[in-house]
């Protein structure tokens, strides 16, 4: 029972203070889907690996919700990691290049 509670609370410690519920639930799902299987049930969690996963979760969330851009390789990686995560009402962003292209025609 104690292990189950700790496991359920595990991702909650990584929620940002300013993160709204919708953004957090999407990022939480990203984190949980991408935890290595050997981390279940209170197994030791190397801090470097979790830091890397948390960074990738922030890249994905920032791209999805804020329109931040990153290198193609990095975006490809996080989009693949997020495959199957459904998020409703995702904002649509127009890049600077898209705006400039429209004005050239």
Key traits:
disordered N terminus; mainly alpha; elongated; 5 helices; 105 residues
Secondary structure: elements and pairs:
Blueprint: H1 2-9, H2 21-34, H3 47-66, H4 72-81, H5 96-104
Structure description:
The chain contains five helices and no strands. It is elongated and about 55 Å long. The longest helix has 20 residues. Helix content is 58%, strand content 0%.
Multimeric state: single chain
Q: Which geometry do the CA atoms define?
A: elongated
Rg from alpha-carbon coordinates: 17 Å
Q: Percent range for helical residues? A: 55-70%
Tally of individual helices: 5
How many beta strands in the DSSP annotation? 0
- Summarize the helix and strand pattern as letters: HHHHH
Unreliable stretches covering 5 or more consecutive residues: 1-5
Structural class: mainly alpha
End-to-end distance, in Å?
Answer: 64 Å
Average pLDDT, all residues:
82
For the biggest sheet, the summary is: none
Strand coverage percent: under 5%
């Amino acid at each position: 029972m104690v292990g189950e509670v700790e496991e359920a609370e595990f991702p909650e410690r990584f929620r940002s203070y300013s993160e709204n519920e919708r953004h957090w639930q999407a990022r939480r799902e990203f984190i949980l889907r991408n935890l290595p299987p050997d981390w279940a049930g209170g197994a030791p969690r190397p801090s470097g690996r979790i830091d890397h996963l948390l960074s990738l979760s922030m890249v994905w969330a920032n791209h999805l919700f804020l329109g931040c851009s990153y290198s193609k390789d990095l975006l490809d990686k996080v989009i693949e990691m997020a495959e199957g995560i459904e998020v409703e009402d995702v904002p649509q962003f127009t890049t600077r290049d898209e705006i400039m292209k429209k004005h050239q025609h």
